[in-house]
Write a structure and sequence with these properties.
By secondary structure, the protein is α+β, with helices and mostly antiparallel strands. It contains eleven helices and 13 strands.
Amino acid sequence: MLYPGSIAVRLTLGLGLISVLMFTAAGLLLQRTLAGQLQQADCQELRGKVGVVRHFIDEFARERDLAALRHHFDDLLIGHKRLSIRVRASDASDVYRGTGLPVDGAADADGFGLAVSADGTPFETLHGRLGTDSPWPGGMIVLGLDMRPRDDLLWRHRNALVGICALGVALTVALSAMATWRGLAPVKRLSQQASRITAHSLDMRLLDHHNATELDGLVEAFNAVLDRLEAAYRQMEAFSANVAHELRTPLATLVTGSQLMLSGPRTASELKEAIGSNLEELQQMSQLVNDMLFLARADQGNRASGLTPVDLAAEADRTLKYCQPLLDDAGLTATRVGAAVLDCNAALMQRALVNLLVNAIRHTDRGQCIVVRIEAQGARVRLSVENPGPPIPDHIRARMFDRFFRGDDARARAGESHGLGLTIVAAIARMHGGTVFADHADNNNRVGLVIPSGSTGARG
């Protein structure tokens, strides 16, 4: 069914308008062509009759038989109801005036013209002046053809053209509607397929066997959107489940501890110890919430603000000093290699570096050395943390920057990590217009970020 404002209606009306213009132009051209050809035929006929009339006058000049001349003119009119002949002398007296419809007046000069009879009949006329050697020097030959039969033919032809053009337009509109309906059928099928996609069937995709090349790009783009939507929906589901899982344990600890304290009389030291334990749990929950809020802002496309030139070497040295207790506790050493100055947010870059160091410390055996490497590579700066060890498995490397992902649960003690450290590193890289990476070279795993040296953001 065609609805107002639909593509099918617009296409049908557009094709109908085009057919109206085309048929109208063709009809007018045919009508004018026919009228011109009929007029040309009449003019040729008049020229031929003028030649015959002059021939009869030449015979009269030799024989001087006026009755024979008029008889010849009468014979010429037989079978030519449209033809009218008039021959007049120089004194305007009629030498001959045919029995056909009379022509009113005559031009003084030779040539074609139009005239009207006494009863209003229009004539196509041809005037020819007689020469000085004629029996009537200075006289005039006037031949006329009745235009009514020609006008009647043109009128009938015009009416036939109007009917044919109207029928052609109607057929064009009808066939255009059918062709448009069939041509847009793949779009309707795709719409029906899309309407069946719900939150419970996000794995459905538009089928590509629609036999319409023009729709390939649309189908591919729509399916790509569905891929991203499904990924975001699954991520949201996983995120909600992970948040619930991460918050369930500290909340259960808080509830259980509080109930235990309230189950009987407690000393001040016991209450202080319970409140301190609850405070630790609340601080971990607060950190988790703050991290999630930070990631939410990064996901919304927030850019890093307060960009200033930062000496990454000095920043790395300060970070290593800050993380020295963790290194000592893990029995590790750390060093920094390379230097560069980068326009960035110093606090965010320090946070990213701390998270990279903490991740490396968790996955490095005692007695090993961790390297913070800074490399200026033309229009970008590469900041990485290297630690000795076997290559990171592909399935872990593919997900290690995902939220709440822990590559080795056996090495992550309860409450030590929420699995957001590397996710925050990736968010900081995006906020500076950069990317993250994880690879293996020279028996070292390298995890870090690459930032354009002219990173875009809100300058302070």
